[in-house]
Amino acid sequence: MSGKLYVVATPIGNLEDITLRALRILGEVDIVYCEDTREGKKLLSHFDIHKPLDSFHARSSLSKIEKIVEDLKMGKNLAVISDAGTPAVSDPGFVLISEVRRSLPEAEIYAVPGPSALTAAISIAGMATNTFVFYGFLPHKKGRETILKEIMANNKASVFYESSHRILKTLQSLAVLLEPTRRIAIARELTKIYEELKRGSAKDLLDYYTNNQDKVRGEFVVIVSGAD
Ligand code: SAM
Fold it and tell me: Are 136 and 218 found together in one domain?
């Protein structure tokens, strides 16, 4: 009988956000595949879990996926974690899971749900997000303009991840493209000491971050309200 594959969400900052089930599963599996084994080791050691770790990340070769499939065939139970949040949400996981489903259909794959910056941000944004479009990270160059225009025209909320290096540039683009009535919420450093949620027009937020460079740090989720 093949082993089980658990896709385990981990905290996005505050370690208290790990779930009881995640702790149990991470303590029970034979191997934990981590996006970065150093990060995985830090997390597991914090909870006094000591398990063999191996790496699985965006650049992992096909042979790594084959090794994971072999582990499952041998009956090993495995967990996959990313550096933070839910695997396969703008993180590695999709290719592996799709390949396990294809080549070992009898393998059981379980979600161990928990934190994600996406759901954390929309939960506190106070915006109509019953339906929304999630873009992950916006492309840096090719296709960026097209997506920004799509966000401009979208009557659903648009949500995307952004880095501290690009947040000002993105707000500049949105300030040019969007009507001043379009509301934006920016969630920064969710669950961490400097957690902050700012709301306003693109111009308001551009002014805020331009005047508060110390806040142009950390990790960001941007939510743009739908067009009326
Ligand atoms: N899989 C993760 C999840 O479920 O949230 C997302 C991984 S993606 C590589 C990392 C991006 O998520 C960051 O660049 C940032 O945009 C967002 N993010 C992660 N942690 C965050 C946090 N604590 N606060 C705000 N955004 C965060």
Answer: yes
CATH of the domain at 189: 3.30.950.10
The per-residue pLDDT for range 175-225, each reduced to its tens digit, is 999 999 999 999 999 999 999 999 999 999 999 999 999 999 999 999 999
> Do 124 and 49 have their domain in common?
no
**Residue 125 Cα, ligand 1 centroid: separation in angstroms?**
15
Atom of ligand 1 nearest to the CA of 163: 14
What is the pTM for the complete model shown?
0.96
The total domain count for the chain is 2
Distance of CA 87 from the midpoint of ligand 1 (Å): 11
The SS3 of residue 171 is helix
Same domain, 85 and 107: yes
User: 54: CA distance to ligand 1 center in Å?
Assistant: 22
What's the confidence (pLDDT) of residue 38?
A: 98
Residue in 89, 90, 94, 191 to alter for ligand 1 test, most ligand atoms within 8 A of Cβ: 90
pLDDT in tens, 72-125: 999 999 999 999 999 999 999 999 999 999 999 999 999 999 999 999 999 999
Same domain, 99 and 22: yes
Cβ(167) – ligand 1 distance below 6 Å: no
Q: What is the rounded distance in angstroms from the CA atom of residue 195 to the CA atom of residue 31?
A: 33
How many Å lie between the centroid of ligand 1 and the Cα of residue 225? 20
Pairing type for strands 4-8 and 53-55 reads unpaired
Residues of the domain holding 210? 117-224
Give yes or no: residues 139 and 88 share one domain: no
Neighbour-count burial for 25-39, b at 16+ CB within 10 Å, e otherwise: bbeebebbbbbeeeb
